[in-house]
Amino acid sequence: PKIVTLPGDGIGPEVTAAAVAVLREVAPDVTIEEHLIGGVAYDTHGDPFPQVTRDALGDADAVLLGTVGGAQDSAWNLLPRHLRPESGLLALRKALGCYANLRPVRVQPGLEHLSPLKAELARGVDILIVRELLGGVYFDGDRKIDGDTAYNTMRYTTPEVERVARVAFWAAEQRKGRVTSVDKANVLEVSELWRRDVTALRDREYRGVHLNHEYVDSVAMLIVSDPSRYDVIVTENLFGDILSDLAAVIPGSLGLMPSASLGDGAGLFEPIHGSAPDIAGKGVANPAAAIMSAGMLLRHGLKRPEGANQIDRAVALALREHPTRDLGGRADTQTFTRAVLSALE
Amino acid sequence: PKIVTLPGDGIGPEVTAAAVAVLREVAPDVTIEEHLIGGVAYDTHGDPFPQVTRDALGDADAVLLGTVGGAQDSAWNLLPRHLRPESGLLALRKALGCYANLRPVRVQPGLEHLSPLKAELARGVDILIVRELLGGVYFDGDRKIDGDTAYNTMRYTTPEVERVARVAFWAAEQRKGRVTSVDKANVLEVSELWRRDVTALRDREYRGVHLNHEYVDSVAMLIVSDPSRYDVIVTENLFGDILSDLAAVIPGSLGLMPSASLGDGAGLFEPIHGSAPDIAGKGVANPAAAIMSAGMLLRHGLKRPEGANQIDRAVALALREHPTRDLGGRADTQTFTRAVLSALE
Ligand SMILES: CC(C)[C@H](C(=O)O)[C@@H](O)C(=O)O
Ligand SMILES: CC(C)[C@H](C(=O)O)[C@@H](O)C(=O)O
């Protein structure tokens, strides 16, 4: 199988290198091809998602991404929007047709102390957030900034809602069988459609799954103060962006949150943390999320669950013995990566 | 001075009665007139914001609101959108011209243990969230659900951004002098306008205030894992809705979050919690947020800071001695309210 890696900007190259080292160990038969995305791609090709990268995806079985973007005051942020690093990432998601972004939130036994939450709240948390990734306010064409007015449009259609809801129901069937759909139906028409279509699909095809609906503001509070009430959460793009970053509070760091984006073709696997320009190049970034994303790549992209489990176990061990700085420990990227490699059985 | 109370639905009447009892004690000269809003107003007048309520606001100096809305499966939710309880609340906010919603998040000394966060993180937190309340996706006319498509529009204009940013800068000047403006400018044009206009206003008129910009997903995580980094947060309507509910995690309950909505005329004061239909009528709701909202009414609405301080001190004392059920204690609404009344000096 062929994997394309897109290390990107900031700490992206460091954490991707760590993930690749682990991947080579667990899946030595895999071919790895590296390409540019984001700010570095703009700097080299004048395009954050250049044609050469796009072409390389054609025969890829999976894509492993680092991070894109610069600091708030980066020169990239002065470019026209379509040339900025983040636009490269959005174009990549679109090109791959990855509409369902899976963001697992799990607190490993023995790692409750890493959470800012009281240990009894963090213990045993196991939530899967399914974020719609190709619709809503992120992609709708009707958007403008002009003089003293600006707007974006939050739009969904029934097929868009159904295809991502299917992924959530399917995942729930492998888990505890419960889906919480998150919206703001007390205010938004687009949420009314979302709620109606998710409900209809459950009634039609997934009667064994328990479905409830909650408002996004309420979930933002409850996911942190009572996380064990959730099994699978499904929501639209912007709410999913906010809730999944927020959920990183539970395990204790964005550095512990991998993701898998699935859809029509090759899957996209990326840590959910940003490019952390303040620590880029210093060799101290926590590569756990990137390594766990490589695990999700094995599980969902190459259908090799044993390899994925191997990685998850090794990461949990390494976190216990060599916590990185974001977790209050002292391990740097290399130390942590070596610990993972030597914990692989 | 004349105050209009709008107890509303669910636990609204119970917590409003508690707040009124405290208000009568601290400001015996105030005239109080009660009217209907929300679901009960629809049930009585066929309109969640009836004309008789609207008329009563004309000469009011401030409005004290309870809560509106029913359970997710309430019959009210089957009404056309403009007749639902929440639409009554939105129409009320609009009618009063309350564009700046102040939501203080404070952990009182000695009450850190109520937080699900580790005590060292919760200690001393004092954040003011300023939420834009009359714009964005909540109010823009361009919205529709039609067959298998639905959309809402997130729109802002420069004057809308400036008037709420002014409130945030003004508040920061009374506090630690720092404003964090929250947006999603890496994706949204409407956030680009927001960021540009907030920055320009600071540069023009509030050079003494330190301003920084952060993305909403990042703030969602940081406000819980590192709350002491924030002083004043200013953001648009939907982000403010989510972040302020979320911030309730820090003190430990939505039941501890009051709010003040200020603007062109009389201010609107309301607890940020919902109508909690599951416990309505049982006499166990925590009235602290409603009572503290009455405190904010005295401070911002009637310019009586001594009265406000009196209430804040009494609530803190009562919380220490008689925590309500949402806080893991056993006090019911009446016990708690009596404790506040007897703690007033
Ligand atoms: C960088 C940005 C465009 C992106 C998003 O909002 O989707 C990021 O926050 C994420 O969650 O992957
Ligand atoms: C009830 C609802 C319309 C309201 C809002 O979203 O503004 C509530 O959540 C709040 O925060 O006051």
From TrEMBL, chains A, B:
Its cofactor is Mg(2+); Mn(2+). Substrate binds at residues 93, 103, 131, 217. One of its GO terms (biological process) is L-leucine biosynthetic process. The keyword Transmembrane does not apply. Residues 2-340 form the Isopropylmalate dehydrogenase-like domain. It is found in: Cytoplasm. Binds 1 Mg(2+) or Mn(2+) ion per subunit. Gene3D superfamilies: Isopropylmalate Dehydrogenase. This is 3-isopropylmalate dehydrogenase.
